[in-house]
Amino acid sequence: MDYSIRLLKEEYSSVLEGYGGLLMMRLKNLCVKSDPVSLLPVVIEYEDRNMGIEELADVSVPDDDHLWVIPKDKEFIIPVAKGVLETHPEFKMSNEVLKNGDDEQPYLCFTMPEVDKDRYDALNQTVDIFYDDAKKSFEETRVKYDLRLAEKLPTMSMEDADKAKDDFEKTYQTNVDTAKTTVDDKKKEIADAYQRYQQEKSASDQGFKEQAAAAGEDVKSKLQMPSAEE
User: pTM for the complete prediction?
Assistant: First the structure.
């Protein structure tokens, strides 16, 4: 392959991968499962400076529903909490303490929000918006680089020109397929979370009904009048 064509293809691939990476980052910030990547956009104001969370705290993922943010100094707790909640107001936060013998390490526990029906709909709509933006960027990039490739084709043999066009098409399709897979995975994650919410709500409702029924039977038993024989 001609050197200039190879460079153009690498540039084309890099631009497409950039848009794919942006889509992935945007989807990861639609928090369903706990993911440290969702904290990358957090900006923390401390001593008149804007800082990333990694400069002031360590992050741990104990399970799919929680993020533990462990400040490197106690004085970082308030600015870190403020920074995270400004970026992700949907998180629920609690102040916790890790105990190791006589040592105590305060940390912030952030709980992922439940995916009820309203949030399920909102998340899917947002995924579609982000995906549409990515597809638009992919197509605009395709048109731009097809034109740049077309300018070079007249100087190439027919065989080399066909190979170059095939390589560019494969590069495009690979990135489009990767984006589609990323979106499908996110939608499955959302659907699984919504299904879990429904199951937990159903179990909770059933438990409430059983408690109410048991309480009703207890009241009924206490209100029963003694029979004449008694």
Answer: 0.82
Token pair of 210 as six digits = 């059983």
pLDDT in tens, 162-175: 999 999 999 999 99
Both tokens of 70, joined, read 């462990």
With tokens 């080399």, the residue in question is 160
> Which long-range CB contacts under 8 A does 132-138 form with residues at least 24 apart?
133/23, 134/19, 134/20, 134/22, 134/23, 134/179, 135/176, 135/179, 137/19, 138/16, 138/19, 138/172, 138/175, 138/176, 138/179
Distance of CA 213 to the CA centre of its chain: 41
Over residues 110-134, mean pLDDT:
97
The CA distance from 97 to 160, in Å, is 65
Rounded Cα distance between 35 and 33, Å, is 6
Q: Is the separation of the CB atoms in 60 and 70 below 8 Å?
A: yes
